[in-house]
Amino acid sequence: SKKEVGAILHKTGATFRVWAPFAHSVAVTGSFNNWSQTPMDFEGDGHWAITLKGVQAGQEYKYVISDGEKLLFKNDPRSLQLTTNDGNSIVVDQHFDWEGDDYSPPIFNEQVIYELHVGTFNRADPSTSGTFQDVTDKLDHLADLGINTVELMPIGSMSMDRGWGYAPDYIYAVESLYGGRNDFLEFVKAAHKRGIGVVL
């Protein structure tokens, strides 16, 4: 059976599971255990896991992987959010209030697509990166132009936090400089309210 990997939040805590087939041992460390190392259990097929009570959304963590000689502190490759690319993984509540969003995209030959780069599309200060909120601020303008689909250049968490998105380090996490996962979801919801689809 397929094992869900990453930090899986549930009512009483979270289950952490990572695929590390060549590790001698794996532990999890984070703000929920005062950054001590809690050993994880080997489940076979390269998977290590542990369920901890009291873990909450927003708490930070890393895996501590032993290769038999040294300890490697690693972010979760299946993390949905990072503090920064070189920072820590964040436990995420995957529930999101779509407020009854029932958006349906136009058929392919009726799509008017506008491709944009979140980091440079709309920013008050050229020395800073644009965010999903900055793009949201221009959605009415795009709708007035007749745009009904926005295609975002890659938004995965990337090395050095700046770039065009084509060299992501963590493909499941949304770039924190843009506002992260929740701001992305809020952007999609705002676009749908204006009849605009979002393509990645």
Summarize the structure.
By secondary structure, the chain is an alpha+beta fold. It contains four helices and 14 strands. The longest helix is centred in the C-terminal third of the chain and has 14 residues.
As residue ranges, the low-confidence spans are none
Tell me the span between the first and last alpha carbons. Answer: 29 Å
- Number of DSSP helices? 4
Total number of beta strands = 14
Order of helices and strands: EEEEEEEEEEHHHEEEHE
Write down the overall mean pLDDT. Answer: 93
Largest sheet features: 5 strands, antiparallel
Q: Assign a percent range to the helix content.
A: 10-25%
Structural class of the secondary elements? alpha+beta
Description:
This protein has 200 residues and is an alpha+beta fold. 15% of the residues lie in helices and 32% in strands. It has helices at 118-121, 132-136, 139-145, 180-193, and strands at residues 6-10, 13-19, 25-30, 38-39, 41-44, 47-53, 60-66, 71-74, 89-90, 113-116, 149-152, 156-158, 168-174, 197-199. The strands form 4 sheets. Strands 3, 4, 7, 8 and 9 form a 5-stranded antiparallel beta sheet that branches. A hairpin with a 2-residue loop joins strand 5 (41-44) and strand 6 (47-53). The longest helix has 14 residues, at 180-193. The two termini are 29 Å apart.
